[in-house]
Amino acid sequence: MAVPARKHSHARKMKRRSNVWKLQAPALSICPECGEYKAPHRVCPNCGKYNGRQVIAVDED
Description:
By secondary structure, the chain is α+β, with helices and mostly antiparallel strands. It has a domain at about 25-60. It has 1 helix and 4 strands. It has one helix at about 10-15; strands at about 30, 35-40, 50, 55. A two-stranded antiparallel ribbon has the order 1-2. Strands 3-4 form a two-stranded antiparallel ribbon. The N and C termini lie far apart (about 70 Å).
């Protein structure tokens, strides 16, 4: 059987659903080579290393 659409107010419905749209902080790990934060399983943008190997050349400024 159908439920009336206006049984609960819009504010009450959105209050109930408020946890659905919470943003999550991005997962970050620390690079073992340089100590900077980087995304896990990605090349470090600071030093260019991944899994102990030099993957990309990074200009030293």
